[in-house]
Design brief:
Chains A, B: One of its GO terms (molecular function) is isomerase activity. Chains A, B: It holds the Pfam family AP_endonuc_2. Chains A, B: This is Xylose isomerase domain protein TIM barrel. Chains A, B: InterPro entries: IolE/XylAMocC-like (IPR050312), Xyl_isomerase-like_sf (IPR036237), Xyl_isomerase-like_TIM-brl (IPR013022). Two copies of one chain form a homodimer. With 296 residues, chain A is of the alpha/beta class. The first copy, chain A, has one domain: Divalent-metal-dependent TIM barrel enzymes (TIM Barrel, Alpha-Beta Barrel). Helices cover 40% and strands 11% of the residues of chain A. Chain A is built from eleven helices and nine strands. Chain A has a nine-stranded parallel β-sheet. In chain A, helix 4 runs parallel beside helix 5 and helix 8 runs parallel beside helix 9. Chain A is globular, with a radius of gyration of 18 Å.
Chain lengths: 296, 296
């Protein structure tokens, strides 16, 4: 019999002749190193290992002058691939919701100072005492709509990161790329920009419509970031058991090919939450990242 | 400002006047009791607590004559809501794949003897040594196509259960209701039946397109089973930390309303994998199920 395939499901094939990935096109998200060292040291380490960019977390900037950090990053020869991450939008009270929005507005300013092309949004989810995701989704949309003009003004895209559905209960009501893209359509129907998606392989690899979603995102100019790590089998912890690229079952080469075919030419950013890797020396982690990236 | 909602996203509202759920319309999946007791005792317990049906696992039937068990279930006044679950289809070799298919063919016969309306399929995923999900999806489709005539012949629906995407690496390449429904369309384009879906709240609650999926499944007569438990916040284990209905964040009343509005009039089946509940006396678990079901 002939091979069956699901109707309307674009099969993702590992590419034969994808352009090799060089480290100058890669970025290190500072979460990958476990937030052990001060940002100055992390900038230096990332630059010395040959990566082209860095993606700091806001906690790494706490107590620092952002303009100074921005200059340190440039002086090290690095670009910034994004600023992580938003304060969750949903809240049980209107006052708390608006405070969350304002917190994210200030973060957009910091992202602009850093020269980040995007501010990565982990949007949050259902406030305590509620069930389902409708309320959270409505609050997230309203929060984004309150920030969109400012994002455009400072030139930093709001990058909605759909999280893996296992985080729908505590971290993100946006659980698939198609949902993030629908939010972009709602907020920016004319395609003026200012809102996009951050596509993390770990969060979306399972989706049978992934190829379609990436193609749509590219067509509409809505891929602001591409994050990689790997899905381990077995996965022992919902948050802190992500793998180094190549250790797991995600076909990262195929996904990179889709992302690049969709027109994305930004950095490939490594973001690994892992008790295992966070217990390794930072140099060792960066060397592993470098080796692994060249295989995808 | 007016309340925003995602374009094309049907908002799921908790219903005001859904018909109360009585236990005669509910089923206990034997996994809920942790497989501690022999099936005869479980049948007796489930019947004595007032439930209308039971869903045995194949491991509960091991070493038993299925015809005898079927009679014991009828004699206790219970129906069978489904037989759990399939042997995984995907395999690294053709021989192993075909052996998996034949194993599932025999299980369909057992399901028929039990009077089960469906055989619940946890389809399996990528064989060792492979990446991505395309190969697994193709094998699952072929396996189902090899079984469909037999399923129709014995009058037991192949019920594809989309599993939560956190199981895509080790249990099921079918990770969303839309994917399961697309497989049904591929296998049964004319709607002759024999293949359907098993919708488990735990696996699909996060999906922004859930309402559309349930409506489509109902319209096409492809809801073979409806399973319930709850998503705990925090969830501490990927497999064995599911909650009793009401303990978590799923809006089960809203989901039941959608399922019933879609035309499903089968049993509401409780299936809870939980170290906590498996350590409770079986009577205690069944009483908690009974109380909790009446609240959804």
């Amino acid at each position: 019999m002939h091979i069956l395939s699901i109707q309307n499901c674009r099969v993702i094939m590992s590419p034969q002749n994808i352009r090799p990935l060089t480290l100058d096109r890669c970025s290190i998200n500072t979460a990958t190193l476990g937030h052990h060292s001060p940002i100055e040291r992390v900038i230096d380490l990332v630059a010395r290992h040959g990566f082209g960019a860095i993606a700091p977390w806001r906690r790494d900037l706490s107590g620092h002058d952002v303009t100074t950090v921005s200059r340190q990053i440039r002086d090290a020869g690095l670009a910034v691939s994004g600023l992580c991450r938003s304060t969750y939008f949903p809240a049980a009270t209107r006052q708390d919701f608006l405070a969350n929005v304002e917190d994210n507005r200030r973060a957009l300013d910091d992202a602009a100072v850093l020269g980040a092309p995007c501010f990565v949004l982990v949007v949050g989810t259902t406030p305590a005492g509620h069930k389902g995701l409708d309320l959270a989704r409505a609050q997230v949309l309203e929060g984004l709509s309150l920030l969109l003009d400012h994002a455009r003004h400072v030139g930093v895209a709001l990058a909605i990161e759909p999280l893996h559905p296992m985080y729908a209960g505590d971290r993100s009501c946006v659980a698939s790329l198609s949902e993030a893209l629908a939010m972009c359509d709602t907020l920016d129907p004319e395609g003026r920009g200012g809102v996009a998606t951050a596509i993390d392989a770990y969060h979306v690899w399972w989706d049978w419509k992934l190829a379609d979603g990436i193609a749509e995102a590219g067509r509409k100019g809505r891929i602001a970031a591409f994050h990689v790590c790997d899905w381990l089998v077995p996965t022992k912890d919902l948050l802190l058991d992500r793998g180094m690229m190549g250790e797991g079952v995600i076909d990262l080469s195929a996904m990179r090919a889709l992302i690049e075919a969709a027109g994305y030419d930004g950095f490939v950013e490594v973001e690994i939450f892992s008790n295992h890797w966070w217990n390794q020396p930072e140099q060792h982690v960066l060397e592993a990242c470098g080796r692994s990236l060249q295989l995808i």
